[in-house]
Each structure stands twice: as C-alpha cells, then as structure tokens.
Amino acid sequence: MAKLTIPREELMYSGHAACPGCGPALAMRFLLKGLGPRTVVSVPASCWSVIATPYPTTALGVGMLDNAIEATGASISGLRAAADALGLEDLNVVGFAGDGGTADIGLQSLSGMLERRTDALYVMYDNEAYMNTGVQRSSATPQGAWTTTTPVAGEARGKLEPKKDIMAIVLAHHPVYAATLNPSFPEDFVRKVERARGMRGPRFFHVYAACPPGWRYDSDQTIELGKLATYTGIFPLYEVENGQLRITRRMGQLKPVEDYLAAQGRFRHFSPEEVRQVKEQAEARWADLLAREKATSTPAPVREVPPAGAPAPRPSATT
C-alpha cells in the first residue's frame, strides 16, 4: 500500500483560542485536511464553540454553524436536507461535538440521526469530561479519574462508574462506517476521514482528544500521550464498515498501562490494585477486538477442486 501523504492545505487558521497541546484542535485540523473545503461543520456548545467562533471571528476555512448542546444530530440532519434540496449533494455535512454533548446530553439526537440514516458524519471528540465549563465528569470519564465533581480526598477515589462504551451504542444502529481515530497517528486519521468522505449514509468517528489542563499533564506531551493510549490498549484503533471490524494499528504486545496512567495527574492517586484493574480491562478489550475482527472477517472464496482425472475447467474470457 502506498504511503499516505497528509494534505498540505490548511482549513483551520492559527490564532484560535485553544489551549497549548489541545487534542480537539489537532482533531479538527486533521479532519478538515481529510474532508476538504466542500464542508460545513455544526458545533454545539463546547470547547470548540469557544476555540473557533468568538464573535466576529472564525478559526475555520469552511462553513460553521453553532447549535444547542443537545442538538448536533438534529442539526446535521437539517443541514443535509437543506443541502440536498439545493442540489449540493457533494457537500460534506459534519457534526463535531464533545463527549458531554454526545454520550450524555446529545445521545438522543445522535441516535435519531443514525436511525434516520442521515447522510452525514458525526464526530465525537472525547476529552473525557466537560472541559469547557470546568472539568466536570461526563459518562465518558474513565472510572477512577479525578474531576472537579469526582474529587480525590479521604475515601473519595474519583469517578465511581465505568466509561460509557459509545461505539457499542453507535454500532447497534448499524452505521455504514464507524471508526476510532487518534491525532497521534495522523496518517491513520486522515486515511479514515478520506474513506468516510467517499461513503453515503450515517458515519461516526470516536476521536481520542487529550486535554492538558483537564488531564493534568504538560502540554508538550500530547502526541506521546496519545501514542501511549493506543499502545497500551486504552484507546485501540479500528474501523467497522457494514458490520465488518478491522484493526488499523496492531501491537505485538501491549505496553504497560502504568506508563499511560502515571503521565496524568488525574490518575496519580491510583493504588496498585486500581492499576491492575485498568490493565485487565485493557487486555480484555484488546482480546475482544481481535476476536470480533476474526469473527467478522470475510472468508476467502472456496475453490472447488475437480476430482482426479477430470478435465481442467476452461478459462473464462476475462482471464
């Protein structure tokens, strides 16, 4: 396979309001490189509505619409209908929402968009909390993580509940394409975007989006942290097309989860037992992905072998 070259065109401008090392900013940059200028993005109340659109400026070289935090799925459904009515079938319609606006407040709207088979791409950038309003926990916050609403003090050990499996919920709606993306692997990221761009129907991306202030790590470590997330099995990279799963970044052996957890202040309180639990969960997740890939892979066509002494089949006119 030829090595993918990341497009040079920039559709996200400098001078935006993102924090240094912002994972969601990297996600938007690579997303637009893969989609190109024939794109309109609908963004709910979130970090990105602050990053991109303090009136009267914009950080994007494509059309952008602000929508209510719970309404991204409905917004892109309306945009798709309007674009089709205007004969703009080649327009990429994209929803770009955080985990709070997707897995929590916007879940019903996302489900409706998928069930209606809307021809649009929904992107959840997952920084694992409500970062724009002060690092409050969301359903996508990992179990045990510190946030301002899941403190670590005395007997309090961070968030009590496990991280919501948004991909399982999405895949239950049978989208034409769904994938996990990580800005630390830009070629894999852009390849999946370009693949989705050529499809029609509901598509979904779950994007790893590290947040230095919310996760309590140095901003120059975003790329290395993202690599650790995938190499440890915390955030594996795969794609599902019409029900068939394919892992896109393979590891011979998972790296220790301790390396990932120790790099972030939100996990610094973890006991050896809590680290062990994360390790077991990551290993189980990876084993499950390998099993699902094998179970959904398309078997090679079976060639019938003629009995001994039978004449060889005549070649077809196309061989």
Architecture blueprint of SSEs:
Layout: H1 23-35, E1 39-44, H2 47-52, E2 63-67, H3 72-85, E3 92-98, H4 100-104, H5 107-115, E4 121-126, E5 152-153, E6 156-157, H6 166-171, E7 177-181, H7 186-197, E8 203-208, H8 212-215, H9 222-231, E9 238-241, E10 244-247, H10 257-262, H11 272-296
Tell me what the structure shows.
By secondary structure, the chain is an alpha/beta fold. The chain has a single domain (23-296), classed as Thiamin diphosphate (ThDP)-binding fold, Pyr/PP domains (Rossmann fold). Helices cover 34% and strands 15% of the residues. It has an eight-stranded mixed β-sheet with strand order 2-1-3-4-8-7-9-10, sandwiched between helices. Helix 1 packs across helix 7 and helix 3 packs parallel to helix 5 (107-115). The two termini are 24 Å apart. Mean pLDDT is 92; it is low at 300-319.
